[in-house]
Amino acid sequence: MSKKRVYRSKKKIGQIPGSLIYTGERSKEKLFIETFDYTKDFCVEKELPTIQESFEYKDTDSVTWINLNGLNHVTEIEALGNHYNIHPLILEDIVNVAQRPKIDDHVDYIFIVLKMLYYDDNQHIVSEQVSLILGKNYVLSFQESEGDVFDAVRDRLRHAKGRVRTLKSDYLLYVLIDAIVDHYFSVIEILGDKIEDFETAIFAGDVDGEISQKIQDLKREILKVRRAIFPLREVISRIEKNESPLIHKKTITYYRDIYDHLIHVSENIDIYREMIWSLMDMYMTSISNKMNEVMKVLTIMASIFIPLTFIAGIYGMNFEYIPELQYKYAYFILWGVMIVLFIGMLFYFKRKKWL
Amino acid sequence: MSKKRVYRSKKKIGQIPGSLIYTGERSKEKLFIETFDYTKDFCVEKELPTIQESFEYKDTDSVTWINLNGLNHVTEIEALGNHYNIHPLILEDIVNVAQRPKIDDHVDYIFIVLKMLYYDDNQHIVSEQVSLILGKNYVLSFQESEGDVFDAVRDRLRHAKGRVRTLKSDYLLYVLIDAIVDHYFSVIEILGDKIEDFETAIFAGDVDGEISQKIQDLKREILKVRRAIFPLREVISRIEKNESPLIHKKTITYYRDIYDHLIHVSENIDIYREMIWSLMDMYMTSISNKMNEVMKVLTIMASIFIPLTFIAGIYGMNFEYIPELQYKYAYFILWGVMIVLFIGMLFYFKRKKWL
Amino acid sequence: MSKKRVYRSKKKIGQIPGSLIYTGERSKEKLFIETFDYTKDFCVEKELPTIQESFEYKDTDSVTWINLNGLNHVTEIEALGNHYNIHPLILEDIVNVAQRPKIDDHVDYIFIVLKMLYYDDNQHIVSEQVSLILGKNYVLSFQESEGDVFDAVRDRLRHAKGRVRTLKSDYLLYVLIDAIVDHYFSVIEILGDKIEDFETAIFAGDVDGEISQKIQDLKREILKVRRAIFPLREVISRIEKNESPLIHKKTITYYRDIYDHLIHVSENIDIYREMIWSLMDMYMTSISNKMNEVMKVLTIMASIFIPLTFIAGIYGMNFEYIPELQYKYAYFILWGVMIVLFIGMLFYFKRKKWL
Amino acid sequence: MSKKRVYRSKKKIGQIPGSLIYTGERSKEKLFIETFDYTKDFCVEKELPTIQESFEYKDTDSVTWINLNGLNHVTEIEALGNHYNIHPLILEDIVNVAQRPKIDDHVDYIFIVLKMLYYDDNQHIVSEQVSLILGKNYVLSFQESEGDVFDAVRDRLRHAKGRVRTLKSDYLLYVLIDAIVDHYFSVIEILGDKIEDFETAIFAGDVDGEISQKIQDLKREILKVRRAIFPLREVISRIEKNESPLIHKKTITYYRDIYDHLIHVSENIDIYREMIWSLMDMYMTSISNKMNEVMKVLTIMASIFIPLTFIAGIYGMNFEYIPELQYKYAYFILWGVMIVLFIGMLFYFKRKKWL
Amino acid sequence: MSKKRVYRSKKKIGQIPGSLIYTGERSKEKLFIETFDYTKDFCVEKELPTIQESFEYKDTDSVTWINLNGLNHVTEIEALGNHYNIHPLILEDIVNVAQRPKIDDHVDYIFIVLKMLYYDDNQHIVSEQVSLILGKNYVLSFQESEGDVFDAVRDRLRHAKGRVRTLKSDYLLYVLIDAIVDHYFSVIEILGDKIEDFETAIFAGDVDGEISQKIQDLKREILKVRRAIFPLREVISRIEKNESPLIHKKTITYYRDIYDHLIHVSENIDIYREMIWSLMDMYMTSISNKMNEVMKVLTIMASIFIPLTFIAGIYGMNFEYIPELQYKYAYFILWGVMIVLFIGMLFYFKRKKWL
């Protein structure tokens, strides 16, 4: 079951380092390769049948974005990697989807792993690995499956919207990361809605026994989001600070903007974590309050009727000589006494604010 | 509902970086622009109908404060920003009200975002974004709506109170920030009063089921205040430490004073956080104590009357041969026995300190 | 009420920076000024009627200690400050008693704020602000009210006890701070006693409903002490590390001694905090244990007598044909059965360790 | 009992420093020595009867791996250590199995201690100490017992798989550490399964009184794993950063890969810790919920039947004059009243959602 | 009472700094002075009647260890201190037993305070202060009372075991500290046993009301041990890092060994702390479980017998016309009905897993 394995590593124990083995679950994904080759003046978009056709772009002056979907196709990834002189351990990281977001700074290129987050149709959060390699005049991107958040980027490239076509590959990298980070906002928006729904439900007392399980599930979702986002802050911060020749001074400002967004998202996540803990507290309090209410009902019923029953029991005794029994109005007097007792009890509980 | 969205980001997902979109809720606010242009000797105060009229102040020797209310008027903000050579990403930050307090140090100017806090008429806390740009001889300020905490500053400028007219734009910036930070004190004063009211209520046992919801609301208010104030400390600390040529040595002392105030406020906020947690604890304890009391009443009533009822039941049996029934004083003796039992029970519970 | 406002800031919102306004509660305190002027060979002690008489000591070679009580007398403080060239913001800090302990290192003098702690007659902790200014050949001290912890210092100056008369103003500053820090030990001693009294009371089960309120009060006292002492550590540590020409190498050792004492006190405070949390835990446990005991009594009484009452009820029925009723010894046999049941129940509860 | 001593130190109190005393429990382990001596071109594998036979490899150019199992054989270890000029304190550390993972950087060699983790047949986690010494052209490894995780390494050496035969001793060290770290993944996989089993059990309400003991055991397992893995991160990080001439630049990348794996494992462990705490919370909640349910059943039964019993008791009284008793249909009317009461009660509890 | 004062400072408030006042409780301890004077070739051991006899060793080439027991003898300590030129504040620290472990690095000597831990006859932990002064060719040690952990060291000196006689005073200091640290292991071993005993007791349900008090006591013991050991780590780490000419390069390795031991002990202490918190949790859970069980018994008894008693009550009514009463087998049928009800109830509770 997919959910069950969520926190598990999928490392292939005992393998020779540098061997490419896809560790994800989408092992039947079709290979999809597309390229955008552009300068300020033109933009050529292609969908490639084989990886070899993308090799020609390596030494052009134009900026090239090669996007590959389907990490199960390790042969093609290895071919592409070898052509661009990518270190084998990095190729291994690309197809091993249990990576934490990280950055590896090599001489000719920068390697970045991050996580794309979205909710699937069952409202389960999905964390998909995206690897990005920035070279002097190219960006390679690797994704598990076809659906992605890059449509707006494609659109901007095609129609030369914004500044993307006028700047270099480092700006393209920024635009891709920004698209992914932007999507985090909609994920935490949904998370926030879920938490508020719980809160409303708990306050309304409208809770069943499964709520603690649901809260537990929510905690996990937050953990998952946290694991995707928190290490990324460090990644972006290192891009900002590193003096890599691949990143131009002018684009640094844009990366700082991403960093601000990540800080913002992280803060929200921490707030949600704290709110979840409070929810659990409130739930416990509501259980205690309910128990209190149950106990009050029991105590009131018992305290009122047990003494009255005792009195009735007294006059149900069969002693030969019980003087009250013969007295004609005894029965009615007794009723009076019992009603007075009853009302007295009610007053007592009223004063104690149990009613 | 305004309250509901409080912790959410309003980022415009998928937009091109640098596009100006107001993300707040006051989209119908009227544009209001005022300028103060002053030196030691004169002070000219104007309310401007169009933003273009403020452009003339850019190259004067006098200090100019341009205050703009109404972040929904993005066109005017863009025009002003372009005239003063402000970076597009900063203009985007000004109108995107989901910023954390931060400082951006550019060559010609310093950009600062902070939050103005106040309680609205419904006693809900409101956090409004204020952006400040400090240039060589000007300060630009941008606010969401008209009501602000700068009246005392205006007054000092008009009547040359204090040192503000004799010093440069960096001191004006200090005065504006100081006015905002001063207001934090009244906000945490109200927070403190609320907490004490809860405390008194819980100690007096005067609590209803909604108190945990109210405590939760209070926690959120504190979170909100915290989010506004804590990052500001770092901002001020960076002003102190940065050797920006825009801030003179002599005014640094004043910024250190603000820093001290912020530390003071932050400390109080952390104390309030801790007190809130204690409140929750005390509330749980008071619930447990109440349940204890309820249980005691039930136990006392049941323990006293159940045995007595049993005795009465015995002599209500219809056996043909129960010798006691014939004995004349049996009934009275039984009453005696039961009264002794009753008193014995009372003593027992008294000794156990349940009464 | 004094206690209520304890954690609140008293900042004068909206005032011009540098304006001297006393923010404490002792606004009717009489002004008291004393001076000690001494070298190794002589020591002149005076009580001055006006602040102006203290001005003459500024340029002498002897060491001068000017001690001023009564922070409400802002005019005199301002006059003294101006004479000694103290920065206006520092004078503002002296009379604003809501300062955190801090150190400000100026060219000609060092400014230190700290808190004197003591228990008043109602056993409430009082935190009084003391400001100290160390100059080349003088120490100025400012206190809210007359009672202080400096008597031992005065005595040592008068009778040339210890090394104080043979050393410079930096040693005098040390002696004054040491006197205040020494007093912290007696404060935490009292705190420790209070905690132990609670512990004993909770273990003895001798608690009433107000104990959680008292624990809460204790928490606040600890918070107050913490706020006074923890920032002081940093202050002293900065004296040690700063290479101020006003502090001689040889006296640094003495400041390190104060630092050790502060670490010691801080550690105790943290231990007390932890013990307070444990107290709360133990109190909750004791409530649960009591409830358990109550429940056991109820359960034992009910479990024993409800079945017996049922049996009695059976033979109280009025069916025409109940064979047992006619049997002569039935009543006694029934008693036997009931006694056996009773004893069986007792054994059962004994085995369950409920008795 | 082995489990009991788990967290205890086994230090030999009062011994002279540098004396070799094996502190583990496998004091009857047979000595086993094997060597791999290889270059790119050949690989000689031997099992040695005496330690002295391994001495010849010290000054060869080929890379030598000497693996020794059986830490109880201190004489042989001392002999080997002396031959390779290992410091006596390091030899002491090798046989004292209560070490934390650590690295000691000497001039001629690097000493590393780490822990091999696996589950034994009773599903108890076992933490076995492995010591590694890296010299210029050799790696020495010391293990407590024979079973280890190095089989894949042996295989790669024999058949020249991967790059191991073409590189130096620093790569061999990497391969050995990598084999151990790889095994951590399977350990945390089992841990994760255990936690999920508990979670499922608690959610299904399928818990007995021993669950808190089992959770406690699980906590300990996690502690044990944590203690083995967390310090190792620092060890690897120091290998990365230290500029030891024994580790070549090119192999550093591989050590960084191990570091990434360790971060990954550590993160999972911290998540498990948090999940365990949540489990305990959920367990407490489930207890409270059950108690609530028990109380509801009691309250419903008592609240319904106690009043009805009271009514029956009334008409069981023996007053001479109770008018209802003579009325012919009274009995049936009473039944009606009681049924109405019964149904009314049910409705009341239904509305309260207790049913 | 000794135990009560445990966490209190004993500082002599208001005293002149540098005045020697013993603050411990063993004010009647007899003075005991012994010296070991040794080189590689000889070792002279003496017990001295007066402190003055130890003065001669100051300028010899041999290494001298002067051990003084009885901190109440301040005159002798002062005399020794003055002879060896020890700073007065250090002498004050030696006799003030409320010190934290610390190191003071002076030009001619290094001063170290640490705590010797052991369990006394009542199984209370005792923390005794030991001061060590390392000079060029001597070590001075000061202890509160006679019993110590140095016997093994004396033995090694006498019989030239190990390397102690061949090395200098810095190695002697190491040997003394190592002896004390070695003893920490036996202390935490006992602590671990205590915790396990509690655990076993709680799991076995074999707990009385005093367990929370005992857990509290245990917490304090751990705090005490923690306070003795944690600051010592920093002390040893500073010896390692400081480039004091009094400590030779070669002995640094030995100090690192102590450091490793201390890290090991500290880790265990932190684990114990965590286990104690878990114990408290488990205890709370066991209370809740017990209450649950009590409630179940009550609920079962009440739920079964209250309805049955109601039925019996019905047929105990004295209505003139109750048709069932006349029916001959009614009584037996009723028994049947009640038995069916009884068994039905049992099944119901069985299904709910309450039985």
From TrEMBL, chains A, B, C, D, E:
Location of this chain's protein in the cell: Cell membrane; Membrane
Alphabetical keyword list: Cell membrane, Ion transport, Magnesium, Membrane, Transmembrane, Transmembrane helix, Transport
Membrane spanning residue stretches: 297-317, 329-349
InterPro entries: CorA_cytoplasmic_dom (IPR045861), CorA_TM1_TM2 (IPR045863), Mg/Co-transport_prot_CorA (IPR004488), MgTranspt_CorA/ZnTranspt_ZntB (IPR002523)
SUPFAM superfamilies cross-referenced by the UniProt entry: CorA soluble domain-like (SSF143865), Magnesium transport protein CorA, transmembrane region (SSF144083)
Keyword Amino-acid biosynthesis in annotation: no
Membrane topology term: Multi-pass membrane protein
Primary location recorded for the protein, binned into one broad class: membrane
PANTHER family referenced in this protein's UniProt entry, alphabetically: CORA FAMILY METAL ION TRANSPORTER (EUROFUNG)
Annotated family: Belongs to the CorA metal ion transporter (MIT) (TC 1.A.35) family.
Annotated function: Mediates influx of magnesium ions.
Protein name: Magnesium transport protein CorA
Originating organism: Hwangdonia seohaensis
